[in-house]
Amino acid sequence: MNDTETSLVSVRGLRFGYGSRLIYDGVDVDIRRGRITAIMGPSGTGKTTLLRLIGGQWRPNAGTVRFDGEDVHKQSRAGLYRMRRRMGMLFQHGALLTDLTVFENVAYPLREHTRLADALIRDIVLMKLEAVGLRGAAELYPEELSGGMARRVALARAIALDPDMVMYDEPFTGQDPISMGVLMRLIRSLNQSLGITSIVVSHDVGEVLSIADYAYIVHGGKVLDHGTPDAIRGSSSELVRQFLEGRHDGPIAFHYKTARTFEEDLMGETA
Amino acid sequence: MTGVWLVLSSFLAGLGRAQFFLASIVAAIPAALGRPRLVVQQLYSVGVLSLIIIVLSGSFVGMVLALQLYRTLIRFGAEESLGSLIALVIVRELGPVVTALLFAGRAGSALAAEIGLMRATDQLSAMEMMAVDPVRRVIAPRFLAGVIAMPLLAGIFSVMAIGVAGGHAIGVELLGVDAGSYWSQIRAGVEIDDIRQSFVKAVVFGATVSWIAVYQGYHAVPTSEGVSRATTSTVVVSSLSILALDFVLTAFMFR
Amino acid sequence: MQSRALEILVGFFVCLGVAAVFVLTFRVASLDTFGGETYSVTAKFGNIGGLKAGSAVTMAGVRVGRVRAIEFDPQSYEARVTIDIAKRYDRIPADSSAKILTAGLLGEQYIGLEPGGLDEYLTEGSELELTQGAVVLENLIGQFLAQDGGDDKLAEAIGKLAESLEQRKAQPQGDAR
Fold this sequence. Notes:
Order of helices and strands of chain A: EEEHEEHEHHHEHEHEEHHH
Structural class of chain A: alpha/beta
Radius of gyration of chain A: 21 Å
Largest interface: A-B, 24 and 14 residues
Number of strands of chain B: 0
Number of strands of chain A: 10
Shape of chain A: globular
Helix content of chain A: 25-40%
Largest sheet of chain B: none
Shape of chain B: elongated
Order of helices and strands of chain B: HHHHHHHHHH
Radius of gyration of chain B: 21 Å
Distance between the termini of chain B: 44 Å
Number of helices of chain A: 10
Strand content of chain B: under 5%
Oligomer: heterotrimer
Largest sheet of chain A: 6 strands, mixed
């Protein structure tokens, strides 16, 4: 088993579900330090939920989540907050604070958690914005940004405190090819130049596999397969093949389940 | 039977969750006081922006009250008591209650919508992940602002209703009640106790409306329908609570 | 984040608390209920006038109890009134009298008790033997008109009326707030 030397985050035996839906039913995941790990799977499998569980926002029904060796859910409030300062999270739609400018948004974590002088904060913010290519947008408000730009600002904010790890929640969804290319490049360069451990949750198979070092495929509350992108591409599982190739029918059926046949439904009125 | 339990249990759970939420807000108040700029900002959006509706409503209520009371008083030859009667009704009841209802409709719904939207766009989650406690940064300042603003607004309402634009305008200018006796009657009829109790009512109402508004917003379902439901719930629940609380407070205070 | 069970429990306690407050409020808001025990006695009146359940019962002008119930007694054709007296007033002579009086000239009616002289005291279930019903104005006027003869009688009657009104005004009403 991997130890904390190589795994920044290790999830063991995770069970999570509310009401009658069990989202995770015994899941083990390892996020290796300094690597880009992808979490993939069909829609509705709860990929985003995993990020919230790792960040301590939600409690699992059973199992453990460890960040750098420490159990996330056994922390005091102060301890949890200390952990979170080492994590950055990029939400699907950016989640920028709408009443602040781009500059203020990126400066937010700095102002909250450090006592740096204004001039220093200004320099850091500009550097982060430069890294995502949006230094010129510093005075705009979130409502004036396009979706892609908002995400990049959110990324700049996520790395403002130079975290050890950044979690990306569906970063490519709904993006045009250019924005996607920009984001992919950013994720990879952040990982390579700053050594930031990255978790990318996505169902954009092509994009994610092209930048990931390791991938997990999740479905039905379990991990179907995991390995390097090449290993995944060569997977023998029917479900994985359907997912990777985007086949419209396979283990995940095209037709929503119903007991009646098509003929029965059509003839139903007169039958 | 399980259907009934489902509804009942989620109602009780909501009530319980609201208590814990209030506790965390109160615990965060000292921190909020340490950032007065946030509180002042909220005071502006919750208090100052409500001024127009309060001033106008106060005037109208005072004028109507003068008209109605005058008609009855003059039958007993007691129209000179108009001043003290208006003042007592306004100070004891209509001032705090009507102001609170208007406050719930204007400021309460705005609060719920704003916070609900922050919930729906993941802004609150983003704060949590940035290790910032949204209760401290977002909720507590707004709650505090509501508690401070309400008694001020109620006071302005009362002044408008009794004074130049309200009761006085109709009573003295229109109906011919003597200005001197109008005001001396008020001074004689209204005791410092009445004002104190009116203040207590206003503060309690302010806390109640603010609490309900921030709770609804914070726990709103993160969809547009959820936010809309949170907003209407705020107004409905606040209004009912204000009226029920008014009954309880009046029974205990005015004996 | 608290467990759902805990939330439900707290919510339940809040409901209990709110219900308790409301019950308390109703008791406080209603006519000052006595903070304490009472014992009940009865009295029969020829006419109760405007007396109601909840009307005050005073002695020497001080409120000592209230009217709990008023019923018609088919045997004696009189009104039977049940009075609750606060337990701390347990030395009211058994031969005390009860009169139905009016607060002020046009006010509500109440029962005034006047102490007798016996060493026996009223207890639970006693009956006040000496009673005087309400003065009905029509009957009083009818009496004048029915009298034959003189202005003397009229003057005398008016004099008596004025006297009894004086008496009532002089008798302090007691704190019926």
